[in-house]
Design goal:
Layout: H1 2-5, H2 8-22, H3 30-46, H4 51-72, E1 83-96, E2 100-112, E3 115-117, E4 121-128, E5 138-147, H5 160-167, E6 169-175, E7 182-186, H6 191-205, H7 209-220, H8 228-237, H9 247-267, H10 277-295, H11 300-317, H12 324-338, H13 346-361, H14 368-395, E8 397-398, H15 402-430, H16 432-456, E9 464-465, H17 471-484, E10 516-520, E11 528-532, E12 537-542, H18 552-563, E13 571-574, H19 579-582, H20 585-591, E14 596-599, E15 610-611, E16 617-620, E17 623-628, E18 643-647, E19 652-655, H21 664-669, E20 677-680, H22 692-698, E21 702-705, H23 718-726, E22 731-733, H24 734-737, E23 740-744, E24 751-755, H25 756-759
Parallel strand pairs: 4-6, 12-13, 13-14, 14-15, 19-20, 20-21, 21-22
Antiparallel strand pairs: 1-2, 1-5, 2-3, 2-4, 5-6, 5-7, 8-9, 10-11, 10-23, 11-12, 16-17, 17-18, 18-19, 23-24
């Protein structure tokens, strides 16, 4: 069917069928999938004209089946929070940090309360408290405390639950301190051990640790030596795809294999008498790409590219000559049949859409050096503009200098650094002494390249942020890119640029005089609140910063502000200095240096902040922000929290930080009468806060709790929840609602506008 009718139609229909499933809030029963398969087979057999529709129906059935299997493989809910004894093998490269060692474990056997249970899969684990050395391929018996994959849901934020589904992660957790945690030897054959050995060989031969880290990335995809600043430089230049082994590098490896085969035929031309050259080149490309994919740990991006190369190589070996788009469509079919959940990954779309645009829009002009330079420069322009909508959709930012950065970095990394790294890896196995000068050279080349990228990362436009992209705006901008690059002769091609304009539209309703909006962001066990009036904005706390350098100020607060179209910040308040409230404040302060900064404990913070003083106030667009007295004299640090009252014409919000029941009478005593009040529940719903007297005195119409899912403090406490329910006060928790948006109109009482976890339900989101 693919040979006679072509692969483009079936590929597109299969893709549409798979995509339909990814928008479902819940998956249908297995019997429904089986029925769809029967319908698809019936259409293909009895109604030849509707075979294209059969592919779409089969895509729905296949995606439902695989999605259902992936969800069923997750840790059973009643096992969460219980000790599980497992035996498994460490895969990928463990990441050793100051606070813990993180690694992936492929569980092969499990016991619960001493009873064997049937469960296996890939889990992401942290080992705290002086973890022993964890080597790739090591087999361990461990006691784990696990939970189902669950992430933070915020405006513009990433969906880690979707990522876990796409990557086959069935649980996350940590290693419990237990004498039964013992190593059981090593797996007999494990490619990650080879990757680790090559990585250590590079580190031993390249003196500069940063140069070695870059070379380890290019060689075996080992990103353990990179820091947050390195990733910042990569994003500023639009080259994250170059500093980790991706599908692009596998393609370069395939090209390297073709060069090796051509060299062999040049040295021994007689080989052509018994092995045709085209088939040999295709086989060499596939073999080299396969080996390089193995060194990348067979990550899904590399597997997708390997399948694409395999389709083209097979066509060559069978003496077929499909067009470029036909080859791409056949690769699409193969990838979707191999893993329909790959459509959840950004790399899937960036790879296929980018290659499709190059095939459709790039025409060769001239041959030789002139043709090569034209394809290189025009190709970067096509890729930059065509992938801009998708980049903004997935990541919320793009780089305006990315086209120039890629124009320089892509050929240099692909045709100079990566071949040197591949040759150095080859020499490590064949003749280690000769590998030293080659790896030294590759390290110096990487150093020079990175020096230039660091300078370009400081140029204006290196970081370009847009409000959260809507689906219709994404489709219009993609159509506009296609229009811009249509062949000469198509009238008014410049109009394609106008279709990019909807990307600039912020997804928000106008805020009137005397009104404001409030978001309690989902930062896990912590607090971050964003308030916006007609022309002003404030941030109250910014979540935690962890020893792993994961900063919720950057990952949640700043990304949410950009997604909501907030470009200026007037006031930054850290209620007090505890990490779960103030850890992300420094990164927000660096992003908005002109914002006023206040805190209840300025002396304990790592950046200058003025102290909160009771009675301070700001009036913005008819909305008053006022500091209330707290219980700083009580001697309890949490009672030093800076308490804010935000009052509009139609409603008020009280932000209480971590005050305890000792400070609550002071706050309640200074709270003036006014319109309906929305309360940020003190101390995440701790038992030591939210006294019945405080609830009675404030009389909130809604209580908002910010806490982490299954947090170790067990916040909010059941007794606290009971107090609010006894008082008839509804409550919401970010742990179950995600980010919570509350609107305070000037002429109406406050109302909950959206709960981010529930406003766009997906079957993988719990």
């Amino acid at each position: 069917m693919l040979h006679r009718n072509g692969a483009i139609g079936p590929g597109m229909m299969l893709l549409i069928g798979v995509l339909v499933v990814q928008w479902l809030p819940a998956l249908p029963a297995r019997v429904f999938c089986v029925a769809l398969v029967v319908i698809a087979l019936g259409l293909a057999w009895r109604v030849p004209r509707l075979r294209w529709l059969a592919w779409g129906v089969f895509g729905i059935a296949w995606a439902c089946w695989r999605g259902g299997m992936a969800m069923e493989s997750r840790l059973p809910r009643d096992w969460e929070g219980r000790d599980l004894q497992v035996v498994g093998t460490v895969n990928d490269l463990p990441m050793r940090r100051d606070d813990a060692t993180g690694f992936f474990l492929s569980v092969t056997r499990a016991e619960l309360d001493g009873t064997p249970v049937t469960w296996h899969g890939r889990v992401r684990v942290n080992w705290y408290n002086d973890a022993p050395p964890i080597a790739p391929c090591g087999r361990w018996q461990l006691t784990l405390r696990l939970k189902r994959p669950r992430g933070l849901i915020n405006p513009g934020g990433s969906d880690s639950e979707r990522t876990a589904l796409e990557r086959g992660i069935v649980a996350t957790g940590y290693v419990r301190d237990d004498p039964s945690n013992v190593p059981l030897g090593r797996a007999r054959f494990c490619i990650d051990g080879v990757r680790d050995a090559i990585s250590r060989g590079i580190a031993a031969r390249v003196a500069d640790t940063h140069d070695a880290a870059l070379l380890q990335v290019f060689a075996v995809g080992d990103i353990r030596g990179l820091n947050q600043q390195d990733w910042e430089v990569a994003r500023a230049n639009g080259i994250p795809h170059l500093i980790s082994i991706s599908g692009f590098h596998v393609g370069v490896a395939a090209l390297f294999g073709i060069w090796l085969a051509r060299l062999a035929y040049w040295v021994l031309p007689a080989w052509g008498l018994w092995l045709p050259r085209p088939q040999a080149l295709a086989a060499s490309a596939l073999l080299t790409a396969g080996l390089y994919s193995a060194l990348a740990g067979f990550s899904l991006p590399t597997v997708r590219t390997l399948l694409m190369i395999g389709v083209v190589a097979l066509a060559r070996c069978l003496r077929r000559q499909p067009t470029g788009l036909q080859s791409l469509a056949m690769a699409l079919v193969v990838v979707l049949l191999f893993d329909p959940l790959s459509v959840l990954a950004a790399g899937f779309w960036l790879s296929f859409v980018g290659v499709a645009f190059l095939m459709l829009c790039l025409t060769t002009r001239g041959r030789g050096l002139r043709g090569f330079l034209h394809e290189l420069s025009a190709g970067q322009l096509v890729m930059t503009l065509s992938l801009l909508p998708l980049t903004m959709w997935f990541f919320g930012e793009a780089s305006l200098v990315g086209a120039l950065s890629n124009l320089i970095a892509v050929p240099f990394v692909s045709f100079v650094i990566v071949p040197c790294a591949l040759l150095g890896m080859l020499l490590l196995g064949l003749c280690p002494p000769l590998a030293t000068p080659m790896l030294w050279l590759a390290g110096k080349l990487s150093h020079a390249q990175w020096w230039l990228l660091e300078r370009m990362a400081t140029w204006p436009g290196a970081h370009w942020y847009l409000p959260e992209v809507r689906l219709w705006a994404l489709l219009l901008a993609t159509l506009g890119a296609l229009w811009l690059f249509t062949p000469r002769g198509v009238p008014m091609r410049w109009l394609g640029g106008l279709l990019f304009l909807p990307l600039l539209l912020p997804p928000r309703a106008s805020i009137g005089e005397g009104a404001f909006q409030l978001w309690v962001l989902d930062v896990g066990q912590g607090l971050a609140v964003l308030v916006r009036t007609q022309h002003h904005a404030l941030v109250y706390d910014a979540g935690a910063r962890y020893p792993s350098d994961f900063d919720l100020g950057e990952a949640v607060v700043l990304r949410s502000m950009r997604a909501l179209g907030i470009v200026d910040l007037d006031l930054l308040v850290a209620s007090h200095a505890d990490n779960d409230h103030a850890g992300g404040v420094p990164v927000v302060a660096r992003a908005f240096p002109a914002a006023q900064r206040y805190s209840g404990e300025p002396e304990r913070l790592p950046l200058p902040m003025a102290p909160c003083v009771a009675g301070q106030s700001w009036v913005w667009d008819g909305v008053t922000v006022r500091v209330l007295p707290s219980g700083a004299k009580s001697g309890v640090r949490n009672d030093h929290s800076c308490v804010l009252l935000i009052e509009g014409r139609g409603g008020r919000a009280l932000l209480t930080g971590d005050i305890s029941s000792r400070a609550e009478p002071t706050v309640a005593g200074d709270l003036p009468p006014g319109p309906p009040l929305v309360l940020s529940v003190p101390h995440h719903g701790s038992r030591s806060s939210s006294s019945a007297a405080f609830i009675q005195a404030t009389q909130p119409t809604l209580a908002l709790i910010s806490s982490g899912w299954r947090n170790r403090f067990r916040h909010p406490h059941p007794l606290v929840i009971q107090r609010y329910e006894d008082a008839g006060i509804p409550w919401l928790n970010t742990a179950t609602s995600g980010a919570i948006q509350v609107d305070f109109p000037a002429d109406a009482p406050p109302r909950v506008t959206s709960e981010w976890r529930r406003c766009q339900p997906r079957y993988w989101r719990e």
